Amino acid sequence: MTVTQQNDQDMAEALCERVRQAHRDKTPLKIVGGDTKAFYGRRVEGETLSTLAHRGIRHYDPVELIVSVRAGTPLMELEAALDAEGQMLGCEPPHFGEAATVGGMIATGLSGPRRPWAGAVRDFVLGSKVITFEGKELRFGGEVMKNVAGYDLSRLMVGAQGTLGVLTEVSLKVLPKPGAHHSLRLEMPLQEALDKLAEWGRQPLPVTAAAWYDGALHLRLEGGPSSVAATREHLGGDDLDNGFWIDLREQRLAFFSSDDTRPLWRLSLPNHIPELKIEGDTVYDWAGAQRWLRSEASADTIRDAAIRAGGHATCYTPYEEGGCIEPFTPLAPVVAKYHRNLKAELDPHGIFNPGRLYAEL
């Protein structure tokens, strides 16, 4: 099935020409789409290169569970097309605004509550088209899972924040929507919730989201109707509106209110780690593996605690609003060397979103 939409626009050549000119002039480019995730990363100084006009679902095959879509396509538009066929993006990406695009989803690599059970954004990428520093649009990968020789650039683009090239198109694996779903709220203290999640993780339960918030464990059950019904009966608890997971994904819960001026941190940790001794308030997502922290503790205190626990910490509050000047955890020297070498290979003049991730990249 090939989907062609009324607002389908191929602006690849115009984007290539802009990149060629920037390469000739050694002019930095600030690559933007819907800009709903502008807070995520360091500020970029450069000429704006917008991908919004390059949009449209180029190919969609519901039978093969694959879709190829241009980077400027609104994320809501893609999800609506998938929903019409009873399918979805397995990584459940956050939008943070109606203008969110597919390119922004790939650039940030952010995933929603389903991520530990279904996979991250990177796991669903099959191939991509990328404009290189020379202004050439090249295809990497394809529309099937296969081994890749050399750089797997399609997956390297996930989370790279546009620092390696301009993404113009991506091919994704999609998933069927579950036959039934039900959400539960179980009142219990944090440690009991973490223990229960560890126990249930060893059982074939149809859990696709788990979060501890406001003194209770919140669970989403998805799968076959009989399996969901049996698990609901077995676990007990109170019914929960399924909209809770959208509010958690989009950071619309009271915990994320802008009235709270304490910096917001995202901690990525092994899910069995008990509560960290950091002053502040925490929401536990991904069965404890992703933790949202509101704290006035110093960046060094928070990051040291996360590293000792086997994880890392990212500041979600822009520096201009009281956040950390370096939002991402500093790289180890050896890892930083590999990052610099890769950047030099794919962007020798440093024209693509310079400094977005780290000052030296």
TrEMBL record:
<dbReference type="Pfam" id="PF01565">
    <property type="entry name" value="FAD_binding_4"/>
</dbReference>
<dbReference type="InterPro" id="IPR036318">
    <property type="entry name" value="FAD-bd_PCMH-like_sf"/>
</dbReference>
<dbReference type="GO" id="GO:0071949">
    <property type="term" value="F:FAD binding"/>
</dbReference>
<dbReference type="GO" id="GO:0003824">
    <property type="term" value="F:catalytic activity"/>
</dbReference>
<keyword id="KW-0274">FAD</keyword>
<feature type="domain" description="FAD-binding PCMH-type">
    <location>
        <begin position="1"/>
        <end position="177"/>
    </location>
</feature>
<dbReference type="InterPro" id="IPR016164">
    <property type="entry name" value="FAD-linked_Oxase-like_C"/>
</dbReference>
<protein>
    <recommendedName>
        <fullName>FAD-binding PCMH-type domain-containing protein</fullName>
    </recommendedName>
</protein>
<keyword id="KW-0285">Flavoprotein</keyword>
<dbReference type="InterPro" id="IPR006094">
    <property type="entry name" value="Oxid_FAD_bind_N"/>
</dbReference>
<dbReference type="InterPro" id="IPR016166">
    <property type="entry name" value="FAD-bd_PCMH"/>
</dbReference>
<dbReference type="InterPro" id="IPR016169">
    <property type="entry name" value="FAD-bd_PCMH_sub2"/>
</dbReference>
